[in-house]
Here is the input.
Amino acid sequence: MPNIIIKGMSIADVQKISKQMIDELEIIIDCPREYFTLEVVESTFIVDGEKAHKDPFVQINWFDRGPEVQDKTAATITQHIRNAGYGNVEMFFIVLEPNKYYENGKHL
Here is the structure.
């Protein structure tokens, strides 16, 4: 944990930014690299019956780390996506409750 899910970007573009982005997030979040998951969801957006391009949409599932860490995380991910050639980036965080999170059927 954290789990980063990206829609609206190509797999190749996410691969290009992934190492450096996770390097930085590891420090910001104070979380070991092996805890991160990065998922690219290939989506087809439809507007008025036609395929359409949409801005990247990022979902972060994680345990609460406070507003300062959340803001730095959002800024870092946004900057890497913009550096990959994308303009507007939309993002939201889903805060998981530790008492509702299980790994192999047990609370962490």
Remarks:
- The chain has one domain: 3-107.
- The chain has two helices and eight strands.
- The radius of gyration is 15 Å.
- Residues 58 and 65 are 18 Å apart (CA to CA).
